[in-house]
Write a structure and sequence with these properties.
ATP binding; membrane; ATP-binding
Length: 1377
C-alpha cells in the first residue's frame, strides 16, 4: 500500500472517530436543552442554518449512494466511513435548532464538531490522492461539506445573543460565559472591549461583570468554610491546607491545559529533529508525503502551542484572582469579629495583610502548580536527552542537584527576612495611617513635617530590611542562572569529546540536544526560582494565620431579654436600664464610663449606638442618617429625626443639603455636626436600646439643650418610642431628666439611683460628679462654604488626564528615570544588551561548529562556547544586582518621599476632597508596585527587547529569505500594539483607582466595628466589601484577558514564521543545510518564549508605571501650602503679641466664614473666644494657623505679617496648640508622642515627666509593663516605652495628654528665648469639673503666668486674667474683661 493511501485511510479513521463521538454525546446534550427555557431569536437565521444542514445531509447521502452503486452494493470500509457524515449532519441540524432557540450562548459541542470536521476536510483536500475519485463525487462532497460547515461555524460564532423570555435569567453572565468555544480559545470575546478602548474612554460602570466562578461572595464563602473545617488545635500549616481545600477546583482546571502545554512543548524537539533529518537526507527515496506531514505537524504544534499556552495562563490568572479574593474575604471576616482597638496599628495590620501579604500569596497556587509541571518537564526532558547523548545525560542532573543545594542553603534565612520586611512595611503604614487620620490636628500642631520625616525614616528602615531579601534574591538567581547558562555548554562539550567521533557534532544531534537542554534547564531553573518564592510565602501565611487565630475577646455583660421585650442590661449585678428608662452614667476622667458602654455591645440584638469617637462611613448625610438598612419610604420619620437632632439649619447651609458627602471620617462636617448626624442615625434606627457615649460634649450649650429636650424631654422622640437610653455625660441637666444615675469611681460603681436621692448624700459623691451643668463644646466649623466633595473633584482630575490614559505618555518614563538614577539605568541597559548578545549568539556559534569543524580540532569551538556561557552568566548577574540593589531601592525611596511631601504639604481641603482609603492606597499598593514589580518589569522588558532583536538577527542570518516577512510582521506588531495599548492603559488606570475603594472598605470596617456590630450591619459591610472587591477585580481580570489576547496574536505570528521555516526547508530541500534549519527552529523555540515574556513584562511595566503616573498627576494637581519663602527673624516672636486687622476669610466660595475681624491678643493674658455653633470661633484659629486662607486684612505677630512666612515653620515656632482631637501615635514611644519634633534633649526629660505629673497622667504611664517583652528599654524606662504598651487612654485623659504635649513644646520654645502664642481648642470638652480645674491651673501656671498669650475656644470663662471675645456670624460682636 502506498504512503498516500495510508494517509487517506488515516484521515477516514479520524473522521469516523469524531462523527461517532458526536453522535454518542448528542443525546446527553439534547437532554439538557429540552429542559431549558425557549428564547426569542431571529427566525431567518434558524431557517438558514437548517437549510444548510439539510442540504449537506442530502449531498453526503447522494455521494454515499453513488459510491455504493459504483461498488455494486459492496459495503467496504470507505462506505462505512461515508455513512456516518449524513447521519451526523441531520443530528447537527436538530442540535443547532435547539441550541439556537434555548441557549444564550453558542454550543461548544457544535463548535468542536464543526472545527474537527473542517480540519479533517482541509487535510483530505490537500493530500495527494492515491487514485482518482469516480466522477469527482468524493472530492466535491468533501469540499461542499467543508464550505457548508465553515459557513455554519461563522453563523454560530457571530450570532446575536438570544433574548430569554425571563429577563433575569441571564443578567449575571459575563461576555466570556456567553461566547463560543472558538471565541474563548482565541479571546475574541474581548474584541468589543478593545474597540471601546480604542475609540472612546472606558468608564468603570461600563466594565462587564466577573464570571460566576470568580464572584467574591463565592470565594469568600468557600474560604470561610475551608477555614472552619481546619484541624484543631491549629498547626503551622493550618492556613495553607485550608487554602488548598478552597482552591483545588480552579487548580485542577488550570492543570489540564498546563499538562497539554507540556505535550506541545516537547513536540518541538521532535519536530526539529525530523525536519533536520528530512533536509539533511535529500534522497529521492524519501516519500514526498513526509514533507507534507512536517508542514501539517508544524501548524498543529505551533498553533496548538499558542492556544494551549493562552488557555493555561488564563486559568492560572483566574486561580490567582480566586486566591486573592478568598484571602481578602477571610481577613475581612476576621476584622468583623476582632475586638475594637483605639490604636491605628490595627488599621495598618489589616491593610498590610490585605494588600502586601494577600497579594504575595495570591500566586501560591500558581507556584505549586508550576513547580509540579516544571518537575514533570524536567523528567520528560531527561528521557529525550538520553536518546540524544546517551550515557552523558546524568551531567545536567548533577548540575541541577548541585545548584538546588546551593539554592536551598541560600533560602534558609529567607522567611525570617521576609517577615522582617513585611513588619517594617506595617510599621510604616501604621505611622502613615495615623498621620492621614489626624492630618488636621497635626497641621494645627505644626507636626506634619516631623511626622513626615518619621514616616520617611521608617521607609528607610523598610528599604534596609528589604535589602537583605534582595541580596538573597541576587545570590539564588545567580545559582539558578548558572544552571541554564553552563549546562548546554558542558553537556555538548563532554559529548563532543567523549561521545562522538573526532569531536565532531552533527546538526541533527547538536540542535536537537540544544532544544531538549533548553527545555530541561528552563523548567529546572524555574523550579529553583519558584522554590524560594514558595518558601518566602511562609512568612505571609504565618502573619495572616497569627491574625486569624488571635482571640476575639469576650464582653463582661449579660443581656436579659431580647430587643423588643423591654430591654435591660446587667453589668456585674448592676442594671443599666429597662422598660424605656433613661439612665445616665457619670464619673471622673478614667473611671471607665466608655468601657462600661462598650461592654454592652456585641451581646446580640440591634442596639442604637453613638460613640464618643464618632464614626461616619462614606456617603451623603441622608445615607448616613438612614444607615445601611436603607430607610426607603420613611421620609416623614427622617424629617422628624432631622428636626429633633437640630440638623435642619445645618442642612440648609450645606452646599447640597442632605445630599452633601460627609467625606472620609466625616471630615467635611464640623465636630458638632458629626455628633448630631451620628445621634440622628441612632434615633432613626428606632432600636429598643440606645447607648450614647458622651455624644453631647461636642455641642454648644444652646444646641445641647435643644437636642436634649427634643429627644429626652417629656415629649422627646426617645420617650415617645419607649426607648431605653443609657448615656454617658457630666451635665447636671442630664441628671435631672434621667430616671436613674450611676456614678463610677475608684474602679467600680460608687452610687446609683434617682438623682433626687443621690443629691442628699452631698459630700459623699461630690468628688465623683461635676460642679456645674454647662460643660459643652463649641468647636463647630461652618461648612456652608465647603466645596463639592471627593467624587466630583476626582472625576474632574481624571478628566484632565483622560488623553494620557488612552494614548500613553512617553514623558512618564523620563519622570521615573529621574528617580531611578541615570547611572543605574546605564548599568542596567549595558548588562541587558550584553545578556541578550551572549545568550543568543551560541546558536549561531553551534551552526559554525557543526558545519565547519569537520576534521578540525574542536578546542576552538569548545572554548568559545564555554566563554560565551560565562559572559552570559556574568551579564545576567549584573542585571539582577543593578535592578534590585540599586534601581529598586533608590527609586522607591525617592518616590515615597516625593509622594509624602505632596500629601503632607497639601492644603486641608485636599483631605476633604479625597477619601482616606484613596490616599492610603498610594502609600500601600502603589509603593508596593514601585518596590517589587516596576524595577523587575523594567529590567525584564529591556532584556526581552534586546534578546528579540538578537534572535531576529540570527534568524535572518540563518535563513535570509525570512527577512521578506519582516515588513509584514512589523505592520502586524504596529497595529496590534496600537490597539492593545490604548485599552490596556485605561484598564490599568481603572484597576489602580478601584483598589482604593477596597482600602476604604477595610478602613471603615476597622474604625467603625463597634457601631457596625451595635446596629447589626455586619451583612451590609460584608456585601459592601465584596462589591468593592469585585469592582476592583473587573478591570484586573479584563487586563489579564487582554494580555492573553495579545499573546495569542503574537504566538500565531510566531507560528506562521515557524511554519514558514519548515515549509521553505521542505520546498527548498537540497539547497538548505540542516544547520540552517536547526538554528532557525531553535531560535523560533526561544523567540516564542521571548515574545511571551516581553508581552507579560511589558504589561507589568505599564501597570506598575500607573503607580508612578498617579504620583505625578497628584503632584501636578495638588496645590502646596509651601509658598512663602521669607526667613523668620532670629528670636521671633519675642513677645507673642497678635494683632488681627480687618481679616475676611472663606472656605472657597463667596460666603465668608470671617467678616472684617479686628482683634488684639495681648501677651500674658487668656483670651477666650465664645459664641454659638457656626459663629466663626474655630475658623479664627484656623486663620491664625494659615489653614484657612484670608481674602483681605492682615495678621501680625510682633509686627510681622504671617502671610509672608512659611506655614510649617510658623506653626512649629510661633504657636503651641492643644486641639480637641488629640493625636496619638501608638506605634511610637511615649517620648515621641510628647515631642514628635524631637526638639527635647535628654537632659530635658524632667520637663516631660513634670508635664505628665501636672496633668495627672504620670501614674497612668509609670505603672510597670505586664508584658515581659516590653521590659527592654532604651534610655528611659517610661519615656522610651512603646505607647501601645500602656493602658488605653480615656477620652478625657487623651485631652489631658494634649495639654501635657503643649506644656512640653512651650517649655522648649521659651528655653530658646521665644514667646509662642498658645491656642487651646476645646481641650476640656471631655473632662469633668475636676479635670477642667486641673487644666485651668496648668494654663495659668505654665502659659499665662509665664507671659504667653493664650487664645481659648470655649463657652465659659475659667477665671483669672481673662479677656472674653464674643463672636456671631463670623464677626467680633463684643470684647470685654
Amino acid at each position: 500500500m502506498s504512503e498516500s493511501r495510508k494517509d487517506e485511510d488515516l484521515v477516514r479513521i479520524f473522521s469516523a472517530i469524531y462523527n461517532v463521538l458526536f453522535l454518542l454525546y448528542l443525546p446527553y446534550g439534547r437532554k439538557g436543552l429540552l429542559k431549558a427555557r425557549a428564547a426569542a431569536v431571529p427566525k431567518w437565521l434558524v431557517l438558514v442554518k437548517v437549510a444548510i444542514g439539510l442540504s449537506l445531509a442530502i449531498l453526503l447521502q447522494t455521494v454515499l449512494v453513488r459510491h455504493l452503486v459504483s461498488t455494486h452494493g459492496h459495503v467496504d470500509a470507505i462506505a462505512v466511513s461515508m455513512a456516518l457524515p449524513p447521519a451526523a449532519a441531520i443530528a447537527l441540524t436538530a442540535l443547532l435548532f435547539l441550541e439556537y432557540s434555548r441557549s444564550s450562548k453558542p454550543s461548544d459541542l457544535v463548535c468542536l464538531y464543526l472545527v474537527s470536521s473542517i480540519l479533517c476536510d482541509v487535510i483530505a483536500l490537500t493530500l495527494p490522492p492515491s487514485r482518482p475519485h469516480p466522477a469527482g463525487g468524493g472530492q466535491v462532497a468533501v469540499l461542499g461539506r467543508c464550505v457548508g460547515y465553515s459557513l455554519l461555524l461563522v453563523l454560530e460564532h457571530f450570532r446575536p445573543r438570544a433574548v430569554l423570555r425571563d429577563p433575569d435569567a441571564d443578567v449575571e453572565l459575563s461576555p466570556e460565559e456567553r461566547s463560543s468555544l472558538l471565541s474563548r480559545a482565541f479571546f475574541s470575546w474581548i474584541n468589543p472591549i478593545l474597540n471601546k478602548g480604542y475609540n472612546n474612554l472606558i468608564l468603570d460602570e461600563e466594565l462587564p461583570p466577573l464570571g460566576k466562578g470568580l464572584k467574591p461572595e463565592l470565594t469568600r464563602a468557600t474560604m470561610l468554610q475551608a477555614w472552619e473545617q481546619r484541624a484543631m488545635p491549629e498547626t503551622k500549616i493550618a492556613l495553607p491546607l485550608a487554602l488548598l481545600r478552597c482552591i483545588w477546583r480552579p487548580m485542577a482546571a488550570a492543570a489540564v491545559p498546563r499538562l497539554a502545554l507540556i505535550l506541545f512543548q516537547y513536540s518541538q524537539p521532535l519536530l526539529i529533529k525530523h525536519s533536520i533529518r528530512y533536509v539533511s537526507t535529500a534522497s529521492v527515496s524519501t516519500p514526498i508525503p513526509l514533507g507534507y506531514w512536517l508542514i501539517v505537524s508544524s501548524i498543529v504544534v505551533y498553533v496548538g502551542l499558542a492556544l494551549v499556552a493562552a488557555a493555561s495562563q488564563h486559568r492560572i490568572n483566574r486561580l490567582c484572582l480566586f486566591t486573592n479574593s478568598a484571602l481578602i474575604g477571610l481577613i475581612h471576616s476576621k476584622t468583623m469579629d476582632a475586638p475594637s482597638t483605639p490604636h491605628a496599628s490595627a488599621n495598618a495590620e489589616a491593610i498590610t495583610l490585605m494588600s502586601t501579604d494577600a497579594s504575595d500569596l495570591s500566586s501560591i497556587g500558581q507556584i505549586l502548580l508550576e513547580t509540579l509541571a516544571y518537575t514533570l518537564e524536567v523528567l520528560i526532558g531527561f528521557v529525550l536527552l538520553a536518546r540524544e547523548v546517551g550515557w552523558i545525560w546524568p551531567l545536567p542532573l548533577l548540575l541541577i542537584i548541585f545548584c538546588s543545594r546551593i539554592t536551598h542553603h541560600l533560602t534558609l534565612p529567607l522567611p525570617a527576612r521576609q517577615r522582617a520586611w513585611n513588619a517594617a512595611t506595617q510599621r510604616r503604614l501604621a505611622t502613615t495611617s495615623a498621620l492621614l487620620a489626624s492630618i488636621k490636628p497635626l497641621k494645627m500642631l505644626g507636626l506634619t513635617a516631623p511626622l513626615a520625616r518619621r514616616a520617611q525614616s521608617l521607609r528607610e528602615e523598610e528599604i534596609h530590611a528589604a535589602a537583605k531579601v534582595r541580596w538573597s534574591m541576587v545570590w539564588y538567581n545567580a545559582s539558578a542562572n548558572a544552571l541554564g547558562m553552563f549546562t548546554p555548554a558542558l553537556t555538548l562539550t563532554l559529548f563532543a569529546l567523549l561521545g562522538s567521533k573526532n569531536g565532531s557534532l552533527g546538526p541533527e544531534t547538536a540542535f536537537t540536544t540544544m532544544a531538549v537542554l533548553s527545555m530541561v534547564t528552563h523548567p529546572a531553573n524555574m523550579v529553583l526560582t519558584l522554590v524560594p518564592r514558595g518558601v518566602a510565602t511562609g512568612a505571609g501565611f504565618a502573619r495572616i494565620q497569627g491574625f486569624l487565630v488571635r482571640s476575639a475577646g469576650t464582653g463582661t455583660t449579660q443581656r436579659r431579654g431580647t430587643v423588643g421585650e423591654g430591654v435591660a442590661v446587667e453589668v456585674k449585678g448592676v442594671t443599666l436600664g429597662g422598660g424605656g428608662e433613661v439612665v445616665v452614667v457619670t464619673g471622673p476622667v478614667g473611671s471607665g464610663k466608655s468601657l462600661l458602654v462598650r461592654a454592652v455591645l456585641g451581646e446580640g440584638g440591634t442596639v442604637g449606638y453613638c460613640a464618643q469617637r464618632v464614626w461616619l462611613p462614606g456617603g451623603t448625610v441622608k445615607e448616613v442618617v438612614m444607615g445601611m438598612g436603607g430607610g426607603d419610604g420613611e421620609e416623614e420619620w427622617y424629617g422628624r429625626v432631622v428636626e429633633g437632632c437640630g440638623l435642619r439649619r445645618d442642612l440648609d447651609a450645606l452646599p447640597e443639603g442632605d445630599g452633601t458627602q460627609v467625606g472620609s471620617g466625616g471630615m467635611n462636617l464640623s465636630g458638632g455636626q458629626r455628633a448630631r448626624v451620628a445621634l440622628a442615625r441612632a434615633v432613626f434606627a428606632r432600636c429598643e436600646l440606645v447607648l450614647l457615649d458622651d455624644c453631647f460634649s461636642a455641642l454648644d450649650g444652646e444646641t445641647e439643650r435643644q437636642v436634649f429636650a427634643n429627644l429626652l424631654g417629656p415629649e422627646g422622640l426617645f420617650r415617645k418610642q419607649g426607648t431605653t437610653v443609657v448615656m454617658v455625660g457630666n451635665s447636671t441637666q442630664f441628671f435631672e431628666a434621667a430616671d436613674r444615675v450611676i456614678i463610677l469611681g475608684d474602679g467600680g460603681v460608687k452610687e446609683q439611683g434617682a438623682w433626687r436621692d443621690l443629691k442628699r448624700k452631698g459630700a459623699a459623691i461630690k468628688k465623683f460628679i461635676p460642679s456645674n451643668g454647662d460643660h459643652h463644646s463649641t468647636s463647630d466649623i461652618p461648612t456652608a462654604n465647603l466645596a463639592k466633595l471627593s467624587a466630583q473633584l476626582r472625576a474632574r482630575d481624571e478628566a484632565a488626564v483622560d488623553l494620557a490614559r488612552q494614548t500613553g505618555d512617553i514623558t512618564l518614563y523620563g519622570y521615573y528615570f529621574r528617580f531611578a538614577g541615570v547611572f543605574n539605568l546605564v548599568v542596567l541597559a549595558t548588562c541587558a544588551a550584553s545578556t541578550a548578545f551572549f545568550m543568543t549568539i551560541p546558536q549561531y556559534w553551534l551552526k559554525l561548529w557543526t558545519e565547519e569543524s569537520h576534521g578540525a580540532s574542536p578546542g576552538f569551538y569548545i572554548t568559545g562556547f564555554l566563554l560565551l556561557s560565562l559572559m552570559a552568566w556574568i551579564s545576567t548577574n549584573g542585571i539582577m544586582s543593578s535592578t534590585v540593589l540599586r534601581v529598586a531601592p533608590e527609586s522607591g525611596l525617592k518616590l515615597h518621599k516625593r509622594l509624602l511631601d505632596v500629601v503632607t504639604g497639601a492644603f486641608l481641603s485636599f483631605f476633604s476632597e479625597n477619601d482616606a482609603g484613596t490616599i492610603l492606597n498610594r502609600f500601600s499598593q502603589d509603593i508596593q508596585l514601585i518596590d517589587k514589580q516596576l524595577p523587575s518589569a523594567l529590567q525584564a522588558t529591556g532584556v526581552q527587547v534586546f534578546k528579540l532583536i538578537m534572535q531576529i538577527i540570527v534568524l535572518f542570518m540563518a535563513q535570509w529569505w525570512l527577512s521578506l516577512s519582516l515588513p509584514v510582521c512589523a505592520l502586524v506588531l504596529y497595529v496590534v500594539q496600537k490597539i492593545y495599548l490604548r485599552t490596556s492603559r485605561q484598564l490599568r488606570f481603572l484597576e489602580l483607582e478601584s483598589r482604593a475603594a477596597v482600602f476604604s472598605s477595610f478602613l471603615e470596617s476597622v474604625d467603625g466595628i463597634e457601631t457596625i456590630r451595635a446596629f447589626n450591619w455586619r451583612s451590609h459591610i460584608i456585601n459592601d466589601n465584596t462589591s468593592q472587591l469585585e469592582a476592583s477585580q473587573r478591570p484586573e481580570y479584563l487586563l489579564m484577558s487582554l494580555q492573553r489576547w495579545l499573546n495569542i496574536v503574537l504566538d500565531l505570528m510566531a507560528a506562521a514564521i515557524a511554519t514558514g521555516v519548515i515549509a521553505i526547508a521542505v520546498l527548498m530541500r537540497g539547497r538548505v543545510s540542516g544547520g540552517q534549519v536547526g538554528v532557525a527552529l531553535n531560535i523560533m523555540l526561544v523567540a516564542n518564549s521571548t515574545l511571551l515574556k516581553l508581552v507579560s513584562n511589558w504589561t507589568t511595566l505599564e501597570v506598575s508605571l500607573g503607580a508612578v503616573s498617579r504620583t505625578r498627576i497628584l503632584e501636578k494637581t495638588t496645590p502646596s501650602e509651601s509658598g512663602a519663602t521669607a526667613d523668620i527673624p532670629e528670636g521671633w516672636p519675642s513677645r507673642g503679641e497678635v494683632r488681627i486687622e480687618g481679616v475676611t476669610a472663606s472656605y472657597g466660595n463667596d460666603t465668608p466664614a470671617l467678616r472684617d475681624v479686628t482683634l488684639h491678643v495681648p501677651p500674658g493674658k487668656k483670651t477666650i473666644i465664645c459664641g454659638r455653633t457656626g459663629s466663626g470661633k474655630s475658623s479664627l484659629l484656623l486663620t491664625l494657623l494659615r489653614m484657612l486662607p484670608s481674602s483681605s486684612g492682615t495678621i501680625k505677630i510682633d509686627g510681622i505679617d504671617i502671610s509672608t512666612l512659611p506655614r510649617d515653620l510658623l506653626r512649629q515656632r510661633c504657636f503651641v496648640v492643644a486641639a480637641q482631637d488629640a493625636v496619638l501615635l501608638p506605634g511610637e514611644t511615649l517620648r515621641f508622642n510628647l515631642d514628635p519634633s524631637g526638639d527635647t534633649k535628654t537632659e530635658e526629660e524632667e520637663a516631660m515627666m513634670d508635664a505628665l505629673q501636672k496633668t495627672g497622667l504620670w501614674p497612668h504611664f509609670s505603672s510597670p509593663p505586664t508584658d515581659t517583652a516590653d521590659r527592654e528599654y532604651y534610655d528611659h524606662p517610661v519615656l522610651d516605652r512603646n505607647f501601645s504598651s500602656f493602658p488605653a487612654l480615656s477620652a478625657g485623659q487623651t485631652q489631658l495628654f494634649a495639654v501635657a504635649r503643649a506644656v512640653v513644646k512651650a517649655r522648649v520654645l521659651t528655653a530658646r528665648g521665644l514667646r509662642p502664642v498658645v491656642l487651646l481648642d476645646e481641650v476640656t470638652a471631655a473632662l469633668d469639673a475636676e479635670g477642667e480645674a486641673l487644666v485651668g491651673r496648668v494654663v495659668e501656671g505654665e502659659f499665662v503666668g509665664k507671659g504667653l498669650a493664650v487664645v481659648v475656644v470655649s463657652h465659659r470663662v475659667w477665671g483669672g486674667r481673662d479677656r472674653v471675645v464674643v463672636m456671631a456670624d463670623g464677626r467680633v460682636v463684643d470684647v470685654g474683661e
